[in-house]
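User: Show me a protein chain along with its predicted structure.
Assistant: Here is one chain, sequence first, then structure tokens.
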Amino acid sequence: MHSAGVMVSVCVCRFPSLLKRPYSKERFVLRSTQVSRSFTSALSFANGLFHGTGPLDGYQPVFIQSRPTGEDVLLRFFDHCPRYLTQVKNNKSLSDYIHECHSSDEAKRIVDKVQRILDPDHLVASISPKEVEMLRKMCLFELALFNNSDRWCRVFTEEDQVLLEYCSDFKDYWLKGHGSQLAWLSSGPLLLHVLEAMQQHTSQEVPGKLMQGGASTLETTAFFYFAHAETILPLVTFLGLFNDSQPLRHDNHRDMKDRQFVTGKIVPFSANLALVLYQCPD
């Protein structure tokens, strides 16, 4: 995240007014969830963004807002919508439907093959589809962090990876994306917050009015919020992005190989979404 902050600082030529004025907690509002990795990302990003501009040998201390996890309606809205929790996240019928992707004949063949590779002498109980998905995640993390595909990735062929990626996207589609209206509607408070910030910034009728979080929008240059894939995915869905002409189903992965809804591209590690307010000439 430090390199991302440096990149923002270097590319500030695209928004030349962004860093012309010195840091203040009202001018640059930073906020993260209370999850430690989000806070670390916020701190590292700020260190990169303001590198060399601060009073302590170039270091600029920053103020990062946060809310207790149980009260963070803005960035963890997915924890605070009772209808979403009941009708989507904890819906057994939907959960059973999502599981059908891992119950297909093709998925079962992957499970059997992984079992033969890892346990050729049948010394342990059968590997479950959930454990195979965990092995795939270990493969992805090891590849992303260490550029190593010789350990866990070796048990999967490219064809295996394509199907398992689809099943992962299929799950996110119905739990966080276009498949469930409540999933993306739950991000409404965050989108409303963004739109209100922009509207109030341009309005001359509300000088000094305070936004949620305590920052005057007429003073604020930028809001930097640090949260999770579960925050970004419903929000970009609400904006109508990455919407395919047909829904993802458990049985149509071959028809959806060119789909837009690929979570590895929408919300990869350190995914960012920038919403910019432009002032256009009359």
